[in-house]
Amino acid sequence: MNTETSQVHCSSLIKQMGSHQLVPVIVMDKAEDGKPLAEALIAGGLPVAEVTMRTDAAIGAMKEIGQYDEILLGAGTVLTAGQVDQAVDAGARYVICPGMHEEVIERCLELGVLVIPGAITPSDIAKAMSYGLQVVKFFPAESFGGAKTLKAMAAPYGEMGFVPTGGINAGNVIDYLSMPSVVACGGSWMVER
């Protein structure tokens, strides 16, 4: 995939994520739970999933969920280029990492896969922009000042989109979603472990 095609593809996935506004962040303990989870997300009208790479079941669960084309499947807590390869092979269409993991970013760019790295400072945002990225993960959002901090930090970076996660719940999600710079909010409250 050439760079221009990759950018169009990534922009399309960002729009798709934004149309749902919410990204369930999911820790899978059993791979076989992937299929019923995918069916529940589709039936509930929220066909988006970020499966974290925190358990041995994550890759197997992604393979199960990845059988459903209507699910926008991503891998979260990705820390290495090897995990990028595993996640993409399992069906992940985007990759999220908790920080500016250059190895992860560079591998995703090589593969033409949407990558959303964690950014908590203006320097992190500038680094993401230097890679040509369109979206970053504001994480951990609530621990670093919440919506008020994100609003102030986003102001100088008008073209950058944000996916805040970390401490976001049904009680505060609207504070984030009301900001034009927020593409979607991620949270674990939507799917219990």
Could you give a short account of the major beta sheet? 6 strands, parallel
Number of strands: 8
For this structure, what is the CATH class? Alpha Beta
* Strand order across the largest sheet: 5-4-3-2-1-8
Tell me the Rg in angstroms. 15 Å
Mean pLDDT: 96
Strand content: 15-25%
* Helical proportion, percent range: 40-55%
Sequence stretches where pLDDT stays below 50 over 5 or more residues: none
Oligomerization: single chain
Global geometry: globular
Give the structural class: alpha/beta
| N-to-C order of helices and strands | HEHEHEHEHEHEHEHE
Number of domains: 1
How far apart are the termini?
A: 36 Å
What's the architecture, going by CATH? Alpha-Beta Barrel
Describe the overall structure.
This protein is of the alpha/beta class. The chain has a single domain (3-187), classed as TIM Barrel (Alpha-Beta Barrel), CATH 3.20.20. The protein is built from eight helices and eight strands; from the N terminus they run αβαβαβαβαβαβαβαβ. The protein has helices spanning 3-20, 34-43, 58-65, 81-89, 102-111, 122-130, 146-154, 173-177, and strands at residues 22-26, 48-52, 72-76, 94-97, 114-117, 135-136, 161-162, 185-187. The strands form two sheets. A six-stranded parallel beta sheet has the order 5-4-3-2-1-8, with helices on both faces. Strands 6-7 form a two-stranded parallel sheet. α2 packs across α3. The longest helix is centred in the N-terminal third of the chain and has 18 residues, at 3-20. It is globular. The model has no long low-confidence stretch (mean pLDDT 96).
